[in-house]
Design a protein that fits this description.
Structural class of chain A: mainly alpha
Largest sheet of chain A: none
Chains: A mainly alpha, B alpha+beta, C alpha/beta, D alpha/beta
Number of strands of chain A: 0
Largest sheet of chain D: 8 strands, mixed
Strand content of chain D: 5-15%
Oligomer: heterotetramer
CATH architecture of the domain at 97-320 in chain A: Orthogonal Bundle
Largest interface: A-D, 89 and 85 residues
CATH topology of the domain at 97-320 in chain A: MetI-like fold
Radius of gyration of chain A: 24 Å
Helix content of chain D: 40-55%
Strand order of the largest sheet of chain D: 9-10-11-3-12-13-15-14
Radius of gyration of chain D: 33 Å
Order of helices and strands of chain A: HHHHHHHHHHHHH
Number of helices of chain D: 24
CATH class of the domain at 97-320 in chain A: Mainly Alpha
Distance between the termini of chain D: 44 Å
Shape of chain D: elongated
Distance between the termini of chain A: 11 Å
Number of helices of chain A: 13
Strand content of chain A: under 5%
CATH superfamily of the domain at 97-320 in chain A: MetI-like
């Protein structure tokens, strides 16, 4: 019951944030140089089309009225049309989401699981040589520009060794269904996932290291040791269980960062996801897509943070107040 | 061991029962189509697919460099009246629409009338048409208001992009070629039929077994939008597709290594294009001839050739390209590179070096082709060397094209076409010419061009075109830089790609894949 | 005699700051009544101890007395003049006259400044003096708080000093402008036992020398007894009992005071006391119990206590307690009202 | 200034810190000196294209024959301009807005904080991307866009700094003494609050470099400047021919960004040194086999401690916290260990339980619990690889920790924790049995069983401490060590709980060690009292004796420093504060504060003087003090 109320409360909190995002978007369009209708309609649009656009977005109305219409339009899921293809932006974006989810999700899983394991392991010996070395290494890892790492992986594994495919998600003309199809996708995922997971791994090693060692310094851990639990139990039931909380939160908060990495990685590996769409939109200056992607990504991150908060509340009895 | 190959082996081993596997040809292309109806507006992403779906009246392919200005597509043959003003086209009697309807002269007339009525881009090539008559189902008679020697070659050359023949029975009820269900579900009469278009992924076509020239050797033709040359290259290396079109040519410095590879065929195709720069003659300070001359003097073509093309694209000093041996005027040349002189000329033109050593600022843009990008990089540096604060401005293809049309540029890399008929000069440099973005307007030039196209005597035409070339070098609305030479790659065993000699006069258009044959088993 | 400082009918309510959203979601917390109708008078040159547990409102009362916070209701009088809403130059003058000593000596001084610089700050604010005069006064004050050699202390940084020394400097800072009143909020509770007494003795000595009045806030009744002339005992925002120190300790008229007294261990004998088992742990400030706010924990609680707020009963001149049974408790202690 | 130097020393004291600082400084120098270095023109093209790295071109040349090394060096300039530009912009704007939010609080703060939240949730890279795509790509625009997305981060830090500084005593004191808000902000708040923002600046710079590179890589970089991201973007196409074109700038970026991040990390650690070594699993210590001559379970004293010494390593220093402590506790007995902060009493407690932190070493000592030796000669006793103390934990020796708030696992219910502990030691006990036991223990301490299902945070301080007591009683231990069990509690509750502990001890026949700073608390709960000072037990005696005949001046001072509620008001005794407690070994360590110290005290360590059976004092003059009434000793 209290959890439900908490969920309700958090959902309510999202609303103003979402509104602000849309307002920022609106302001950006209006502050950008050039006629808004041209921006929305494309430069070679004919006057009739421009007029439709002006009417649809109410561009001849007072500023606040415009803002209101814009809000209504966006919140009803209408993000306009792509300049290049004339397709509704929302559809274009939704088409690409599964591929991005596959890539980002797998990388996240690899990074989070491996990173938490390594971070927890080194948290057992804070200040040791191994700890310093791995911590330093993990900082170095997340300082790597992910697109560059991707290039290096391509250079080594695809160009030099010719071991792995360097781009795309499927073999053209390869199997389109069944196990073969799945294997094919997995095979194409190796390099992009490696690139993305490597960078995130650094993040997670560090996060896990910091939060686990912070938890291990808590007195309830000492209580656990005094009770006589073996160190393995201490690590799981006390250390990891409590350290997971901040990890989960950070997961939600850093989703924006993760998406950034995903976009850049998709660009390098021609992964047909959202990032690729955005990249192509940038090449084509297809502003409606870029804006739509920004708003949708913001909403995604907000929802993710909402979900992690709720998850947190479910994991941590202290939150439900 | 390559995993893909492993899979393939496995698939082959597991499926001996399947008699003959479909031959699929995947072709990468730079842009995603906007629509699949290319006639109403420029749409670089749509040309390749639609050129294989639709037929044209007359066409042309890279065979032009071997001397064929045009050949028939739907037209089996054509007759030209004595005075050169009445063209009678005899259509292929077996031509059929993909929905089974017969293709008749009415369809051609319908299409051309609508193009002219709606002023679609192709109307530029039909501007001299007085009447279109259809005495019978297989005959189209086009009467021009005055003789035009370039009529067929120009129609043929433009057919690569627009001038598709649309089925009357489908489109009659529509406003134009941009409305209705057939826009993105095209029904043509070409060698391939439309199957589906996965937006952002691929346009898929299949062989038209009823094609009037006989079914193609390819069962499935897929166009994949791939803006990134690296990706295309990687996929080609990975064996994902057998042909790497010239758009994606790897850096020319890699050519020696590629040529040494027995599994790859490297094809070089000279063309009737150059790479040059168009100067916006209506903008300060490029409206000043002295400035344009100085810029021409400040450009080191050899360096451009070396840095941009490993020296394989030869400098172009005249207002034509080397393949047009018949028409080129070698007596007039753009100025030789001389940095000091260029600087002096700019000083003289009233643009001495000022703050920070700059004379004036301008932007350099161009299409997204890698050759133009390379040229621009070098060009900007060379302009900066003579004190012009040049900056790069990059856009995607269609945005760039829009900006050119709006004459919203200073200097742009361009690809002037000199064939298949020299009448092309008018399109580029004539007042109001379709590709005259420079704002160049010279009545004398226009007059010569208009006269030259009506002359049936080749020597007389030659003289006029030589004169026009002299004017271009004199007025310098553009500066020729290098001769284009396409490089394309294909997997050994594959033949009939439009840039290969085996594809000449068979591939249908520049984008046609009708002539392609897979390797023998 | 006019009290130097008087707090009249003081009331402080904190809106817990729950927003509209929270209220919509049914998460609104009730307003916290931190101080509820508190009346106190501080005679010149004397010490009034404010005793209570956490959440009793004693610190808030102290902060209101220095006008760091303005009360929701009631008034503050200084030397007979109302100062509740003082602003600007008048407020600055008031601050010079009414100073404060805080609980935590380790945060008492800006870590970036030397002791001398910190001590000079109030002087710079209030007095137009030459640098030499100021330094002389700083050194003299350091001597006065028994920190020799003064020059060496003036030059040192807080990080190098012990808690006791820091608290002495904090006292020096509070007294350097020669205030009339000093509000001391638990000034020794964070110090080690053996250091505490020194600081308390110092404060007493300085009071004797300077005639300053203290409002001494503490949770420790024994400390209060040592320091004060009068004691006021607070519980959940209200004064339970107030009176002259010795009278209050000896004849407490409120069960809460009695319990506090009984909870102080006898430090000088090893004998065992009988402990009274309390019925519950303290209520939160958010929900003050009805009737007598102490009744849920009171060992003597009667039905009337749950329903009727107790009157303030004057037990002797200057000694009053807010309990229905105050006279009985004053007489018989916790044995008073056994049912 | 001094603090800055300390910080710097803290940074360079670690290898990563020193290296990263060196790299960042080098990058700065290189960027500043680029025009004067003897470098090839980074934009000059030449015929030498695609040249592999060589002596002439260290990093080779690119497709236009430009020198990659020179471009990387000049790229440093762009990277640092972007990094510093956006960081400075972000910090200035963020600090001002954050300070406003934190200082004024209320609605202003609520509104601004919500705005920070929005920016926290926005995927900022996409916002930057959108801005640059809409407004055009140029370096200033890039910096502006990055700062636009990062300022809330600086603002958030500044806000929390201001919030915490606002309640800092010296800020309050300055306000209370009449300083204006502006004076306080300028003099106290900003100088003390700026450090974390500056530290974060290093991270911001790294972020900015990566963001700029990401933009360039997407083709949204400044077309006309040599940036690393653009070099990688260009090199991408030449990956086969000239991999060095993308390797060199990538490595440069990696090194700079990693250095900035490491520097931020090192600065953070330098400001909070304990963060680096906090936590961790207990390290393995050298063990010893059980001695042959131990009495065995059920025999001898419940606890015997002999010459126990424990020292902490802090940096290169060794701090002896427990110094040769010996005592024993009879079965069913209770001992209070009393002393002030830093005297070593809590270290002693954890040494007995062998739950000392990793930086602590046993220097010497033998400890036996219930007749079984668990520590001998400073080495934990182990048999067959298992520590003997582990076998005794909770079944023989349990503990009640100082701060009950944190002593219980916050994510498990009280019952779960009791049940887990029970079943861990009673293998085979069913969950129901364990539950029943937990209920029984709750009954025992008089807490309703309904509270079993509560999470620790749902309990009041007193209840939480009772839950901790219940936990300690689950396995019916023979000995309980209670370390300041009531310190954080209110007086009435304190008194209650002490009473409850005492009652339980009597009822269950437990042995108890109560560690406390409060002589009074101990006096009523324990039969014996040991007074600790500077790591040693300076006096121990039965409780009544220690109050009536304290024989060590320190014990006397402790007793006499506290005011009473009964008896006449008398002037309290006090001891001088001593900043540095380190004294030479050959002296009484109390001598510097002792009002009675003589030259003997300052030169010779005092012997343990046994005044009567069970009353020892470590003072040269113990025998002289013992018979004197207390008051007379203190002036």
């Amino acid at each position: 019951m209290r959890l439900l109320r908490y969920v309700f409360y958090r959902v309510l909190q999202i609303v103003p944030v979402a509104l602000i995002v849309v307002v920022i978007n609106f302001l950006l369009i209006h502050l950008a140089p050039g006629d808004v209708s041209i921006l929305l309609a494309g430069e070679d649009a004919n006057p009739e089309f421009m007029a439709t656009i002006r009417e649809r977005y109410g561009l001849d109305e007072p500023f606040l009225q415009q803002l209101w219409s814009y809000l209504v339009t966006i919140l009803s899921g209408d993000f306009g049309q792509s300049y290049r293809t004339g397709e509704p932006v929302i559809g274009l974006i939704m088409e690409r989401v599964p591929a991005t989810l596959l890539l980002a999700g797998s990388s996240l899983a690899v990074a989070a699981i491996l990173g938490t394991a390594i971070g927890t392991a080194i948290a057992r010996r804070p200040g040791s040589f191994l700890d310093t070395a791995i911590t330093t290494l993990s900082i170095a890892l997340f300082s790597i520009p992910v697109f560059w790492l991707g290039l290096m992986l391509i250079l080594f594994f695809a160009v030099r060794l010719q071991l792995l495919p360097s781009s795309g998600m499927i073999t053209i003309g390869g199997p389109r269904d069944g196990l073969g199809h799945i294997l094919d996708i997995l095979w194409h995922m190796v390099l992009p996932v490696a690139a993305l997971a490597t960078v995130w791994l650094g993040q997670y090693v560090r996060l896990a290291r910091v939060s686990v060692s912070e938890v291990l310094a808590e007195s309830y851990v000492t209580t656990g040791r005094a009770i006589g639990y073996p160190e393995r139990t201490i690590m799981t039931r006390f250390g990891l269980r409590n350290a997971l909380l901040p990890l989960v939160t950070v997961l939600g908060l850093e989703l924006g960062l993760l998406l950034t990495g995903a976009v850049l990685t998709e660009t390098v590996f021609a992964w047909p996801g959202l990032g690729r769409l955005i990249y192509e939109a940038i090449l084509a200056r297809d502003t409606p897509i870029i804006m739509g992607a920004f708003v949708i990504m913001s909403f995604t991150v907000m929802i993710a943070s909402l979900v992690t908060d709720i998850l947190y509340a479910a994991l941590d009895p202290r939150v439900r107040l | 061991m390559n995993f893909g190959r492993l899979l393939l082996t496995a698939a082959v081993a597991l499926a001996p029962a399947v008699a003959v596997a479909d031959v699929t040809l995947v072709v990468p292309q730079l842009d995603e189509p906007r629509t699949l109806s290319p006639d109403p507006a420029a749409d670089t992403g749509a040309y390749a697919a639609t050129s294989n779906i639709y037929s044209h009246l007359v066409v042309m392919d890279w065979g032009v460099v071997a001397g064929t200005p045009a050949y028939g597509d739907l037209a089996e043959s054509w007759d030209i009246s004595e005075d050169g003003s009445v063209y009678t086209f005899h259509l292929h009697p077996d031509a059929k629409w993909h929905d089974g309807e017969p293709l008749t002269s009415e369809d051609v007339k319908f299409t051309f009338d609508r193009i002219r009525e709606k002023k679609y881009p192709y109307s530029a090539f039909l501007s001299g048409v007085k009447t279109i008559e259809t005495p019978d189902d297989d005959t189209v008679v086009i009467t021009l208001d005055k003789p035009n020697m370039a009529f067929v070659p120009m129609m043929a050359q433009a057919a690569g992009w627009t001038g598709k023949i649309y089925p009357k029975h489908i489109w009659e009820s529509e406003e134009g070629f941009d409305t209705g269900p057939a826009v993105n579900n095209p029904i043509g009469s070409g060698p391939f039929k439309f199957v589906r278009w996965d937006k952002g992924v691929a346009v898929e076509l299949e062989a038209n077994e009823d094609y009037f020239r006989g079914p193609p050797k390819i069962d499935r033709l897929i166009f994949r939008p791939m803006p990134d040359a690296n990706v295309a290259r990687a996929e080609f290396d990975a064996g994902q597709f057998p042909h790497l079109p010239y758009d994606y040519a790897p850096p020319l410095a890699e050519a020696p290594a590629l040529e040494a590879d027995p599994s790859i065929t490297v094809t070089y195709t000279p063309s009737h294009y150059s790479r040059d720069i168009q100067l916006n003659t209506q903008r300060e300070p490029l409206n000043n001839l002295k400035v344009r001359e100085a810029i021409a003097t400040g450009i080191d073509r050899e360096m451009i050739s070396i840095l941009g093309f490993s020296g394989t694209w030869k400098p172009a000093m005249h207002a034509n390209v080397d393949t047009q041996t018949q028409w080129i005027n070698r007596d007039v040349s753009f100025p030789e590179y001389d940095k000091e002189k260029a600087e002096a000329m700019l000083d003289e033109a009233g643009y001495p070096r000022g703050d920070g050593g700059w004379r004036f600022a301008l932007s350099v843009t161009g299409p997204s082709y890698s050759d133009c990008r390379a040229i621009n990089e070098v060009l900007v540096q060379q302009l900066r060397d003579i004190g012009i604060d040049a900056k790069l401005e990059a856009f995607d293809q269609s945005t760039w094209y829009q900006r050119m049309q709006q004459r919203n540029f200073d200097i742009s890399c361009y690809f002037t076409r000199y064939g298949p008929d020299p009448d092309a000069y008018r399109e580029h440099f004539g007042t109001g010419g379709q590709r005259n973005f420079m704002g160049y307007s010279n009545p004398e030039f226009d007059e010569l061009g208009a006269r030259a196209v009506t002359l049936t005597n080749v020597d007389e035409r030659k003289k006029l075109y030589a004169e026009m070339q002299a004017m271009l070098v004199r007025d310098m609305p553009y500066i020729n830089l290098v001769n284009e030479q396409k490089m394309s790659l294909s997997r050994a065993g594959w033949a009939g790609f439009p840039l290969m000699e085996s594809g000449y006069n068979k591939s249908v258009t520049w984008f046609g894949y009708y002539a392609v044959t897979p390797p023998a088993e | 005699m006019t009290p130097i400082l008087e707090l009249a009918a003081l009331r402080m309510v904190y809106d817990t700051g729950t927003g509209l959203l929270a209220r919509l979601a049914g998460r609104s917390a009730p307003a916290v009544v931190a101080v509820d109708d508190v009346n106190l008078r501080l005679a010149p040159g004397s010490t009034l101890a404010l005793v209570g547990e956490s959440g009793s409102g004693k610190t808030t009362t102290g902060r209101i007395a220095t006008l760091q916070e303005r009360p929701t209701g009631g008034a503050v009088f200084y030397g007979g003049r109302e100062v509740t809403d003082l602003k600007g130059a008048a407020l600055k003058t008031y601050r010079r006259d009414v100073q404060m000593i805080f609980q935590n000596p380790y945060e008492a001084l800006d870590p970036r400044l030397t002791v001398g610089q910190s001590l000079a700050e109030p002087l710079e604010l209030h007095l137009k003096q030459s640098a030499a005069e100021r330094r002389a006064l700083v050194l003299a004050t350091l001597e006065a708080v028994e920190l020799p050699p003064a020059a060496a202390f003036a030059a040192s940084y807080p990080a190098n000093l012990s808690g006791g020394q820091l608290q002495r400097i904090a006292i020096a800072r509070a007294l350097i402008t020669r205030p009339k009143v000093v509000i001391a909020d638990e000034p020794v509770s964070m110090l080690d036992v053996s250091i505490r007494s020194g600081v308390m003795n110092l404060m007493l000595d300085l009071q004797r020398q300077m005639g300053v009045s203290y409002l001494y806030i503490t949770h420790d009744l024994a400390v209060a007894r040592y320091m004060s002339d009068r004691i006021a005992v607070m519980y959940l925002g209200a004064v339970m009992e107030e009176g002259p120190t010795e009278t209050l300790v000896a004849h407490a008229g409120h069960p809460y005071t009695r319990l506090l007294i009984s909870a102080v261990p006898d430090r000088h004998a090893s004998g065992r006391r009988d402990r009274i088992r309390l019925k519950s742990d303290p209520a939160s400030q958010g929900k003050v119990p009805s009737g007598c706010r102490f009744h849920p924990r009171c060992p003597l609680s009667q039905p009337v206590c749950a329903t009727t707020p107790p009157p303030v009963v004057e037990l002797a001149p200057g000694h009053s307690a807010a309990c229905h049974f105050a006279p009985a408790v004053a007489r018989d202690g916790l044995a008073a009202v056994h049912a | 200034m001094g603090r800055g130097l300390r910080l710097l020393r803290g940074v360079v004291s670690t290898v990563p810190g020193a290296l990263s600082l060196a790299v960042v400084l080098l990058a700065l120098v290189v960027a500043l000196a680029a025009p004067w270095l003897d470098l090839a023109d980074p934009v000059a093209m030449g015929r030498e294209v695609y040249k592999a790295p060589s002596a002439a071109h260290w990093f080779g040349t690119d497709n236009f024959g430009r020198d990659v090394f020179s471009r990387v060096i000049w790229g440093t300039r762009v990277a640092l301009v972007v990094a510093i530009g956006s960081a400075v912009l972000s910090i200035v704007v963020g600090a001002i807005i954050g300070a406003i939010a934190g200082y004024f609080g209320g609605l202003v703060d609520a509104a601004l904080s919500r705005l920070f939240d929005v920016f926290l949730l926005i995927p900022t890279f996409f916002l930057v991307l959108l801005i640059v795509a809409l407004f055009g790509a140029s370096l200033p625009m890039t910096m502006f866009a990055i700062a636009l997305t990062t300022w809330p981060r600086s603002a958030r830090i500044m806000r929390s700094q201001v919030l915490s500084l606002k309640s800092r005593v010296y800020v309050q004191a300055a306000l209370a003494s009449g300083a204006s808000h502006r004076q306080v902000i300028v003099r106290h708040v900003i100088p003390n609050g700026i450090a974390p923002i500056l530290t974060d600046g290093a991270l911001l710079m790294g972020l900015a470099v990566l963001t700029e590179a990401g933009l360039s890589f997407l083709g949204l970089g400044d077309q006309n400047s040599v940036s690393w991201g653009r070099m990688i973007f260009e090199g991408q196409r030449q990956l086969r021919l000239a991999p060095w074109m993308s390797i060199a700038p990538g490595v440069a970026m990696l090194v700079l960004v990693a250095s900035l991040n490491l520097l931020g990390d090192a600065l953070n650690y330098a400001m909070n040194p304990q963060l680096r070594t906090r936590g961790g699993a207990p390290r393995r210590r050298g063990t010893a086999p059980p001695p042959a001559d131990e009495p065995g379970e059920g025999h001898g004293a419940i606890l015997r401690v002999d010459n126990l010494s424990l020292a902490y390593r802090v940096g290169r220093r060794q701090i002896v916290a427990v110094d040769g402590v010996s005592f024993s506790l009879s079965r069913g007995g209770s001992l209070g260990i009393v002393g002030e902060s830093g005297c070593g009493k809590s270290s002693l407690g954890s040494a007995l339980l062998q739950t000392v932190p990793n930086n602590a070493d046993f220097l010497s000592g033998t400890v036996s619990i219930d007749g079984q030796t668990v520590l001998a000669g400073g080495r934990p006793i182990a048999r067959q690889g298992r520590l003997r103390i582990d076998a005794l934990r909770w079944t023989h020796i349990a503990t009640i920790f100082q701060s009950a708030m944190n002593a219980l696992n916050p994510v498990a219910t009280v019952e779960r924790q009791l049940v887990d502990a029970y079943r861990h030691h009673r293998r085979g006990a069913s969950r129901a049995e364990a539950r029943e036991r937990a209920g029984a223990v709750f009954d025992l301490i008089g807490v309703p069983r309904s509270r079993l299902n509560a999470y620790p945070h749902e309990l009041s301080g007193g209840m939480r401490q009772r839950a901790m007591i219940a936990l300690s009683l689950m396995l019916e231990p023979k000995l309980i060590i209670a370390d300041e069990p009531t310190t954080a509690l209110d007086m009435l509750i304190q008194d209650q709980i002490l009473g409850e502990i005492e009652e339980l001890r009597r009822r269950l026949g437990l042995s108890l060690i109560l560690v406390s700073h409060d002589m009074g608390a101990v006096s009523e709960t324990c039969e014996r009292v040991a007074v600790m000072y500077a790591g040693r037990i300076v006096e121990s005696a039965p409780t009544s004796v220690i109050f009536s005949r304290p024989s060590h001046p320190y014990t006397r001072a402790l007793i006499d420093a506290l005011p009473d509620l009964t008896g006449a008001r008398r002037k309290l005794a006090s001891l001088p504060a001593v900043t540095d407690q380190a004294t030479c070994l050959d002296a009484c360590r109390f001598a510097p504060r002792c009002p009675h110290a003589t030259d003997l005290c300052r030169t010779v360590s005092p012997p343990v003087v046994t005044l009567m059976d069970g009353h020892d004092a470590e003072c040269h003059y113990a025998a002289d003090f013992a018979p004197q009434p207390r008051e007379e000793l203190v002036r």
